Amino acid sequence: MKKTLLSFLSSLKLTIALLIIIAVASILGTVIPQQYGGGEAFRHLSPGLVKAFRSLQLFDMYHSVWFIILMGLLSLNLITCSLNRFPTSWKLFKKIPSLDRGKPFEKLSPDRILVIEGKPHEVIGRGENLLKKRYKRVRKKDTANSTVFYGEKGTYSHFGVYVIHLSILIIIAGAIISSLLGFNAYVNIAEGESTNTVYLGRQKGIKKLDFTVRCDKFSIALYKNGMPKEYRSNLSFLKDNNVIFQGPLLVNHPITVNGIRFYQASYGTIPGDQVYLTIKKGNDEEIIRKVRLKDSFYLKEKNAKLTILRIEENLMSMGPAVLINIQSPEGTMRFWAFEHIEKIKDRIPGLFKKVPKFNPGLFKPYYFTLNRIEKKYYTGLQLSRDPGVSTVAIGSFFIIIGFFITFFSSHKRLWVRVDEQEGKSRISVAATSNKDPVGLKREIEHLLRHFSYMRG
Amino acid sequence: MIINTTILGWVTFIYFGSAIFYIFRMVTGREFWGPFASIIAFTGLIAQTVGLILRWFESYKMGIGHAPLSNLYESLIFFSWTIVLLYLIIEWRIKSRNLGAFVIPFAFLSMAYASFSPNVNSRIQPLIPALQSNWLISHVITCFFGYAAFTIACGLGFMYLLKGLGKDEDTRPFFRFLPGREIVDELIYHSIVIGFIFLTLGIITGSVWAYSAWGSYWSWDPKETWSLVTWFIYAAMLHSRFVRGWRGKRMAIMSLIGFASVLFTYFGVNYLPGLHSYF
Ligand code: HEM
Fold this sequence. Notes:
heterodimer; A: alpha+beta; TATA-Binding Protein; Tick-borne Encephalitis virus Glycoprotein, domain 1; 11 helices; B: mainly alpha; 2 domains
């Protein structure tokens, strides 16, 4: 029972089955919107189905319990398989065949036999040197009428598989470290503002950093055709009011502060605290004036003081507006100046009668409209700390090494027999390899060529 | 200004001509046509290389210099370039033109899609910030060499299955030029190995790029997921060969399945809902 479970766990059948199941599940995950998109899909599905999908965690499949179990099984499969096979590989690696058997030389094809000038005893010394240069663990054995050498190459090729499989386990381990110990968060910071509170992505909730991030400036550079060329946030990182780091953050060039990496992820605009007012007096030319929130200026002719009290991006769904306060000898009045007053007037007839406070001409003979609110940028930062990255990187590096060992090396064993034939030396080369027959043939030809240059 | 697209447009026809010659050679069973096919393919490769380099230069002249690997048009061109390059290397190494009829048409199709589809914009566009990364360049190069190797495996798979329609020692014109089964099988295996290594490198370099651009080396977006699925398919294929000793027809069929997955990773993913809504 134990045995069959183990052989099932280490079997290739399980591997293939798992690979197929994980592949199918992953494909499903690309069709069913995950996480953020899930909300969109709800509208197309019946409530029962949504409930079923939810309980199967289909909207966050790659982090669901069953997906993790599948990955766990895959790892277990890799581990048990590797443990199972390793002793065999180790034996193959260690084993040096006995040299006095004639078996390797039975049925040797004639092109693997070479006859050269010189008696065997003259040839053997050099032959040994030649072999020692090219091969490892060279052994020599003299028999009654011949000398046999053994040498080998690429013994490590038996371990390529383990390097690959271990690398995969390392990568999986790295991914686990990432998801358990790492975090992902985002935060929007307006120009000139700072914060130390960021919003967690997957884990939800907020996180307090032990330093403060300030966005000094955000800027966009454009190409001639209007496509974005560069997004740049000038950031300052402060701790106890001391700047610990300052620098520009660009896409593809993250900044790391106290082990947390910052990425330029998005941007946007919010109303700033400056507005442009269009002022028209009677039939005069319009003038445009820049005013800051809470600041005032004087309308000299009427000896009046105008102050901006509030800035609204969208007042009662009627668009941008500012609240104006006017203090004059006639008294104090307050009213709203809209940006799109003409449109609002057309849509709501008799508006000014109903709501005098919306009348832009309330303070005669002036007529105030909002030209525009000066926007200011905010930068959208993505933050992450990912202690699993180096582990994943190590695994990735070794998997490539493992590929080269597995695919491009082979364990070649060569037997070379030197005996005498009509006063000359006859050299026979036999060889085996665990894979790559073509490479083996080349190896033998190469060796024979070297022997043919040799004279006694 | 658009001399590169003109040249690349010609290359489409050159590869078409080459494919015709390879197929003609196959169907008539006369080697006579072979050298024409090879020379035309080689000419096409040179012209295409020149076209790509010119495009690179032109982008610098426009002040938006970048390697011509940044949009669908450029990737299709590069895809066909890698196919023809790998194919010609193989043709030279194995000294046989038999595979040409099964591979060069793919290079032609990729060029034709790039040149004639209304959905593919051939203008040189500047790079948006997210694409300004050397990792992206290594990512594209490794991926497309992988895709090209898988394309060749797929051509070989077709060849193997066609061979199955004839008798073992078929001397009819068409079948005469199909190489022996073991050779095709061996070639499929080698192409898959090359493709698999490049695909793995492609996934790794892509992750490095994602990590430097978005802060997460793996986020299960459809393209990533499909490349992993493709990786699984070829891994399963290699295992069934290593451990079970699967050969021949099964490998040929799996090379077609794998290629279908490659195509979906390349094109199909665009029809799925994407999650990345960055710049
Ligand atoms: C996706 C994760 C992988 C899993 C779960 C996995 C699993 C397995 C298992 C269970 C075996 C042994 C079967 C047996 O001993 O009967 C095996 C063998 C092997 N695997 Fe993997 N493997 C994975 C990835 C890879 C990759 C990427 C490669 C490289 C292409 C690879 C190359 C090999 C080789 C060469 C063998 C041994 C073949 C032999 O010597 O007989 N494996 N694998």
